[in-house]
Here is the input.
Amino acid sequence: MSFRWVFAQQDVGIHVSALEQKLGVPAKIAELLAIRGIETYDDAKLFFRPTIDRIHDPFLMKDMDQGADRLALAIRNGERVLVYGDYDVDGTTATSCLYIFLKKFGVDVDYYIPHRFKEGYGINPEGIKYAEDTGAHLIVSVDCGITAIKEALVAKEKGIDLIICDHHTVGDEIPDALAVLDPKRPDCTYPFDGLSGAGVGFKLIQATVSRLGLPKNVAYQFLDLVAISIASDIVPIVDENRILMKEGLTMIRKKPRVGIKALLDLIRMPREEINTTKIVFSIGPRINAAGRMGDATTAVQLMIAENEAKGKAFAHELESVNMRRRDKDSKTMEEALSMIDDNMDLGETSIMVLYKEDWHLGVIGIVASRLVDLYHRPAIMLSSVEGVIKGSGRSIKGFNIYNAMKKCEDLLEQFGGHEFAAGLTIMEGKLTEFKRRMNEIAYLDLSENSFEPELQIDTELNLEDIDMKFWKLLNQFEPFGPHNLRPIFVSKKVEAVGVPTIVGNGHLKMKVKQGDSGVFDAIGFNMHEYLPFVRKDTFDMAYVVEENHWNGRRTLQIRIKDIHQN
Here is the structure.
């Protein structure tokens, strides 16, 4: 698939010159900083050295005083507390953080994760009844609760205090809870609203530690789990998240907790290689697998494991669940592709809405994401759970799938999410009308260009400018993620050196140079179709720079993202 290259806005010249001079860095490094909104020496210092002392005061968050006071009281009085989480990576890491924190103080703490298929997302009556039956005086919800209007009232009627820690979009009404911690609240002036669910839970821990009069670093022991949540939940890795992510990665690399170490050992991933990408594609999916297949308990058990034997047992269990998830995933993808080929005219379809009664609810969100990547148009995958149609939607730039669903809320039992991802339950008999109306909304919102995939380019770069000094500076831009993606460069009139080949499963491998530059190893995954013309002529190349380790030797290599013919 070829992309339309979109270069970053280049009205940053004045800042580039100043940064180049003050920092003593190459002009292209200064340009990358300026593109990211870094304009001064102090901005650059914070960007390159994001230290833990620069995170925000938790008490700037609305309701934090009440939340921290109540949790500190529960700790001092030894009350029974129920941590109520969600079944995805963010929810299970958040649950684990609060559970371990309270357990260390001897609190009679338990956790509750709703079953994905039997109960669904969020606080529900079954969970509140569990709290009542087990004698909990306080529920702390993490990564859920902001829409629990009725459930908050039920908890209040039963005399159970509720602290909500959430980061999702706030609806028209805020739950009547003892404390509602959500930086997206319209009345919350917290400086950063991009925290993950575990991030909000961490801020509650941080504030509670302060109320207990303990050293700040007591809260920092959970940053490894917070980092996993930040990477996996695809929240912006800027501001406070960048600091939490960097500190968390350091913890995982140097001294991972028992369960995480067991998982890394099982999948043979060297700790020193852990980064945002490895979490997103290797660690996160395995933690997520338990919830996707129904019961997320195993994921929490892995993260709270206190000894090596338990850590290994839960790691193996998660890996087994993940293998089953992959099998379901592959089968569902094949069936979805067949359905599109047989029944759908993509020229007349602005959004793909696919339904099959027996698709596994835990994998349809993953498949929807893959369909979006493949066809570059929004996709909604639907299946039935006990006769009720439920599903997950994923979107592209320019189409807010949450807002589109809101326009169809008269057809839906419930829905929730954000611009690029949302979940929904459709009213009985409304599927046909839902498909029609969503396609109509997408047709009006999207243009022909919307379906052409874009590749965001940072800047043009000459290959001769790439050396180990450049790489060391570029490497300091990590951790990468949303709003701070790994820089993508374009080099023009590049030529292949020697004979390009196809390796593995359709990967293009070659050596390249540009003019009098040195020669670089380059690989383009799944780019075999470009082989004929890279052999014949010069070409323009979009790519990222990476470091390759082989036989104790470190070299720089180019990972090709796209190629345009001259």
Notes: The domain at 344-451 is CATH 3.10.310.30 (Diaminopimelate Epimerase; Chain A, domain 1). Residues 206 and 217 are 9 Å apart (CA to CA).
